[in-house]
Amino acid sequence: MKWENNRESDQIEDRRGDSGGMGGFGGGPRVGGRGIGLGTIVIALVAGWLFGINPLTILGALSGGDMGAPVAVEAPRSAPAQPADEMGRFVASVLGGTEDAWGTIFREGGAEYRKPRLVLFTGATPTACGTGQSAMGPFYCPADQKVYIDLAFYETLKRQLGAPGDFAQAYVIAHEVGHHVQNLMGITEQMERVRGRVSQREYNALSVRLELQADCFAGIWAHHNDKTGQVIEPGDVDEALNAASAIGDDALQRRSQGHVVPDSFTHGTSEQRQRWFHTGLSTGRVQACDTFKTERL
To answer: Which 3 state secondary structure label does DSSP give 101?
Structure first.
């Protein structure tokens, strides 16, 4: 992956070396805290343009409602210096690429893209969604609009899950940013509103659709960055597809328990994750990523 000459994001918060405190690659958003960054009217207009939904319908869904008990947010921190190590710069470069891609897409829809911050941490760190821990894998917290990652996860991805490569690592970040996009569009909040009205099995099925859409959004990032910056090298797409396969629910369950339980899936099968990433990569269109309307996942 040709990342060295790419623009590096200034939205990196480097907490590596901190002692952690109180407040997977599941990567799904922790939806228990309100964290929508754009106003509800802007969300309605953007989502309406992207998915062809009546903005009045979206406004009705987003107005009012209890998102659960409030959560504590860590005390404000001073803006840290940009990371100077190679992995820190790599993460900043990938995040910069997501900003460029989604900034363009939102701007074409007549809206402004609110950039998320990405927090590098070691072991554990406070978040607005509770204490983040390395064992959770990379994740996105909608309440503070931040992506969290302990870079030790990349060793797990490489050595335990058999998914090495810098493009596989970039895909992980792009997937989490995909959850941020869902947050800005109001999809995260709608998921939370449904939680108490459906069974666990039904909610798991909706969670799969949410995660597969984030995979598709990661593919859109790859499409736009390669189109504008020619960042993809031979073998890169295979790295991302391999990573998507390695973290499929069926693959992880076979690895951990020797059999699969489809009703417990929350992220999608290896085949589904690969296919939806490729959908975003090949089309570059948000409309092609509407996993909530398709019958075949």
So the answer is: helix
Residue 52 one-letter amino acid = G
Gap between the Cα atoms of 223 and 240, Å rounded:
13
Q: Dihedral through CA 179, CA 210, CA 167, CA 35, nearest 10?
A: 10
- Residue 222 near residue 282, CB atoms below 8 Å: no
Q: How many CA atoms, within 13 angstroms, populate the side-chain half-sphere of residue 259?
A: 2
Instruction: Calculate the CA dihedral of residues 175, 181, 187, 192 and round it to 10 degrees.
Output: 70
Residue 255 pLDDT exceeds 50: yes
Q: Is the pLDDT of residue 220 over 90?
A: yes
How many CB atoms lie under 10 A from the CB of residue 80?
11
pLDDT score recorded for residue 211: 94
Q: Using CA atoms, how far apart are residues 85 and 181, in angstroms rounded to an integer?
A: 28
Amino acid type, 255: R
Q: What is the pLDDT of residues 142-197, one digit of tens each?
A: 999 999 999 999 998 888 888 888 888 999 999 999 999 999 999 999 999 998 89
Counting Cβ atoms within 10 Å, is residue 239 exposed (0-12), middle (13-18) or buried (19+)?
buried
pLDDT digits (tens, 9 = 90+) for 82-125: 787 899 999 999 999 999 999 999 999 999 999 999 999 999 99
DSSP string, 224-287: HHHHHH----TTHHHHHHHHHHHTSHHHHHHHHHSS--GGG-SS--HHHHHHHHHHHHHH--GG
End-to-end CA distance of the chain: 29
In whole angstroms, give the CA distance from residue 230 to residue 232: 6
